[in-house]
Amino acid sequence: RIVVPGNHDVPLYRVWERFLSPLGKYQRIVQSDLEPSYVDGEIAVLGINTARALTFKGGRINKEQMASIERRLKPLGAAVTKVVVTHHPFDVPDDSGDVDLVGRAKKAMAVFSDCGVDLLLSGHFHVSQSGETWRDAIAGYSALAVQAGTATSTRGRGEENSFNVVRIARSEIVVERWAFDRDARAFGPAG
């Protein structure tokens, strides 16, 4: 299980808490590790905290985080599927229009290219979609960018509540969207 905090985990109106311990409640209730990971001989999944106290909804990645990603993923080689999990997206499919990506997205994408990151998992926009990276294209590099909808929030952006099931094999990545069916009162594969 890889869980990362998002902008709603930072207290908006409790100003002192926002600046002194912005993710303290998250760490007490959800998990203490803000950047969990899992690595074995087939897959490496790195959770990266992009939530920040000084922004209301935007996210950011810093130089230390990018150096950590490079240090941990680059030595693994091409045989390992490399996944980066964040709340805020670094890129989204090209039909998304003009959206606010995570701060330093272009620099991070260069690091991802250098490390051979295969899959970017994120949320934030409450709309599910997937496609290849394309913004600020890097010659010879592309990753699959997968946006999760929202499983529990009422802020669905015109889309029913949903989540993604991601299946990874050596030669392919399959993304299946599961949506909430109000009549059945259950989640199921969406068509």
Task: Name the overall outline.
Answer: globular
Total count of strands:
9
Structural class based on helices, strands and sheet pairing = alpha/beta
Unreliable parts? none
The average pLDDT value, as a whole number, equals 87
Strand content: 15-25%
SSE order and pairing:
Elements: H1 15-20, H2 24-29, E1 37-39, E2 43-47, H3 63-73, E3 81-85, H4 105-115, E4 119-122, E5 129-132, E6 144-147, E7 162-169, E8 172-181, E9 186-189
Parallel strand pairs: 2-3, 3-4, 4-6
Antiparallel strand pairs: 1-2, 5-6, 7-8, 8-9
Explain what this protein looks like in three dimensions:
This protein is α/β, with parallel strands linked by helices and 191 residues long. The protein is 18% helix and 25% strand. The chain contains four helices and nine strands; from the N terminus they run ααββαβαββββββ. The protein has helices at residues 15-20, 24-29, 63-73, 105-115, and strands at 37-39, 43-47, 81-85, 119-122, 129-132, 144-147, 162-169, 172-181, 186-189. Strands 1-2-3-4-6-5 form a six-stranded mixed β-sheet, with no helix packed on it. The chain has a three-stranded antiparallel β-sheet with strand order 7-8-9, with no helix packed on it. β2, α3 and β3 form a beta-alpha-beta unit. The protein is globular. 27% of the residues are buried.
